[in-house]
Each structure stands twice: as C-alpha cells, then as structure tokens.
Amino acid sequence: MAGRLTETLHRILPVAAGLAALLLLWEGGVWLLDVPVYVLPGPFAILGTMVDNAGPLGAAVQITLGEALAGFVIGSLLGLSIAIVLVLAPPLETALLPLVVMLNSVPSVAFVPLALIWFGLGIASKIALASLAVSFAVLLNAIQGLKRPEQEAVDLMRSFGAGRLGILWRLRLPAAMPSIVTGLRVGLARSTIAVIVAEMMGAYAGIGQVIYQATAQIDYLVVWAAVFLSSLGSLALYGLLTLIDGRLVWWR
Asked: Where is the ABC transmembrane type-1 domain (predicted)?
C-alpha cells in the first residue's frame, strides 16, 4: 500500500510542480507586460472568477460532462459492436468500411446543425453528436485491434474446436484491448469537444452556452473561467479512463 502511494506521489508531484510553475510564469508575464484583461487575464483572476461563479459554472459543467459521458458510453458500445460484426463478416467490412472512413473524415461538429434540427436544443442532440464522434474513433481502432492476431494463432484455436465467437472472446478481444483503449481515449476528447461546440450553437444550458453568453456580454473572465473548468472536468474524465485502462490492459 505504501509503495503504491509513493509511486502515485512520484507521478503527481512533477506534474503539479510543472503546473504551478506555468501558472506563476503566466501571472508574472501578464503583470510585467501589463496585458489587457480582454487579451489574456492572469490565472489568479480567472480562479477568482471561478470561485465567485462557482454555483452557475458548476451546474453548467455538470450538464456538459453528463452529456459527454452519456455520448461516450453509447458511442463506445456502438463502435465496438459494429467493429465485431464487421470483423466476423468480412463481406460487410469490405462494403461498409469505406463509407465509415468517408464519414469519419468529416468533423463531427459539421453535423451540429442537423443534430439540432433532428433532436432539438435539449440534451438529446448533444448526446447524439458525442455518440457519433466517439463511435467512429472506437470503431476504426477496434477493427485494427481485432485483426491483430496472426492467422496461425486463429488456425490453432480452430484446430482445438473453437468457433468464431470463441476465437473472438479468447483471442481477438484480448489482443485488441490496447487499440480499443486508444480509441476510447480519442473518443473521450472528441465527445467533450462535440458537446461544447453544440452547446455554443444551441442549448438551454451547459458550459458551451455559458461561454457563448459570456462572449456576447464581453465578459472575458467568465469565458476563461468556463474554459478552465471544462478543462478540469475533461481531465477528471481522462483520469477515470486511465484507471479503467489499467484494469483492462493490466499486462502493459
């Protein structure tokens, strides 16, 4: 237990020290150069604004992260399920994979107007966009990982009587876990971006709507505070995913 705590401290302390040094340099640079607030406020002013508006900002970021997390879960399950079907049915992969790659080349934010028209300004449109953004990332990485085992290993399992599902569960999925986790990492970032952009274009609540309204009111400190808080929330989700990664891919 003490060894794990020491290892965790060794990982966290350098990051915390680097972040503190960056904030001090930022604050000192803004003060020395007398940078206007509307160009770049100091970090302490931003943190003060976060404290002063903790209630509204906290409620907004909870909505945004909830939408992003819901879309992340749905998109991950959808992408992994489709990847398994395509790998088990090669003709479908040949027919559909080019279409998937074509759609993936279009930024998910380009679908924001359509999502707002189809699903409205509520949370449904945000979850749909996040699911779309995540599913492509997980799908492509999962296909790559599921096809990683050598054909000799597949043939060996078949010689022992394993069917397609047995090979999938005992060989392909364990071999694909690193690629799947990579897709999850990319998808998590995509989901947060998609939700915030969608909220800025049309929403009843959320951190993206806070940023939009604060920009319209020329309240730059609130804009920066909202950006800071959303970054911290995304970092917390990323930390959670890292813990899951350690559990799923324990052999790395």
From this structure: 61-241
